Amino acid sequence: MALKGKRAIVTGSNSGIGLGVAVELAKAGAEVVINSFTDTPEDHALAAKLAADHGVPVRYIRADMSKGDDCRALIEQAGGCDILVNNAGIQFVAPIDEFPVERWDAIIAINLSSAFHTTAAALPGMRAKGWGRVINVASAHGLTASPFKSAYVAAKHGVVGLSKTTALECAGQGITCNAICPGYVLTPIVEKQIPDQMKVHNMSREDVIKNVMLSRQPSGDFATVEQIGGTAVFLCSDAAAQITGTTISVDGGWTAM
Fold it and tell me: What processes does the entry annotate via GO biological process terms (predicted)?
């Protein structure tokens, strides 16, 4: 229970990578706040289940990550945090000249601007305690690019840059900021991409997974949410106290190519 006494907020965490990170932080003893834009009985039941499974306080707080005021209110309603994991994200695939403007705006708001707002709201409390961890879930697409994903690639590159700036502004204050850059992880957001990619490439599901998605992932396997969560827990540990302003790729060798 290395993180006992620490409060962690994980945005976009009622499924996928965010939920995987929340679970691993809870296993490590942190009090956890999970989040999404919905507010259903299932959301609160999920928080209760995590609390029962891991013996730590877990709350669900609704906040729409496309709205700056909601992002900042999430931090306030949680009572601040020691660990902030900016994970919320959406995806849309289209050529640049056909990319819907409203989709561009939503992706930039949720994938990038939300991290700015939550970080800005969380840092004063971290500084007051002299300890904090900001972990931004970027992507292999924060370090490289793919066609038809202009908004996502732009946002994730921005997340990497924001992580570096946050790290520099917090250097020497007991606060670190890093970006985890996963390759393909089989989550709901990736599942939704598969039919679009099937249409774009006129391929079967199996061929899209093997020849499009995992063609750039030399390991030939999807990363798991548990692996991303474990990386986040490591970044919160004393062993990672001097790791700041950098990226950690969990991508099966994608960015080594």
Answer: monocarboxylic acid metabolic process
